[in-house]
Amino acid sequence: MDAAVDVSQETGLAGESGAAKIQERLQKRHQTRIEDAERRKEAKESQSVAEEKGEYFSSAFNTERESIEELLSSCSGADRAVVTQRLEEATAKTLQLQKFLNDSMMFLKQYDLRQAQAALQKLQTSITETREEAMPKKKFAFRSRTKAADKVSTPDTPSPDAESGVTTVDGAAASEQTCFSNMENDRLTKTAEEIQKRDVLLTHLTNCKVRLFGSPSTLHLKHIDSCEILCGPVSSSVFIDQCKNTTLAFPCQQLRTHNTTDTQVYLHVTSRAIIEDCRGVSVAPFTWSYPTLEEDFKVSGLDQDRNNWSQVDDFNWLAAGTPSPNWTVIPEEDRKTSWDP
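RESULT FIELD:
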């Protein structure tokens, strides 16, 4: 009799245990459903927020872009002082627009990002063209340095600014731009004081070594052949066109490269680099160093911890999932780590 009671009790306990396990499984299944529903809700809300942010960015970006374009259009026919003021305002607004784009990159679609980058490049080009049209340069004074002594390249009549290496416009110092042009087989240097927060233009250089210290506002390279060009942190954009057989090194916010072949770029860039109509471009992290580099990074406002040197968008290569054949990463063993002074 006792044995029968024990069996009955064990059966009851087993039944209770089984029911408890079933109840536990049901609760877990219900909890899983709730969590899945929450995840779907969060994903939907996140997508909605991203779309709202994208719409806000597009509206705000285009409004500011149109404002800058109107500012540049108003330079036509204005006197020199007014043009200078408006160009300074347009440059400042463009830099702020670049920062707005950089801060919005995380939620922008690739197409929208590329459109915005292209619009910024167009603005930079318009600013340069407006400046050149409204304030044409009649005289240029260049300074180059060698280990032995300074050499000066000047027009037929030396200008008073030749010793300072400052570009002159109608006999006056042009604070907004400095440049080297039409030089060959030379060593060229600009100090931080000469280029700080200015636009720097290098054009028609062949077999030259260029060292640019400090933090320029923008850097334009055009028609460069077989050169080595090293530059301190560029606070906004670097524009390269018609460059070949050259080694470059610079930090910047944005890089746009056109019609360039067989060129190495040692790069620190806080957005994504863009190439177009290029081949044989290779990239590696920025490795040039000089005593005031850290100070120049602070002046530029660039984030030293954010470097997208290997993130290159090729506008001529649209095959998704297949790497562009027009650019490569320089293997570590082939990267240059030391540079001549």
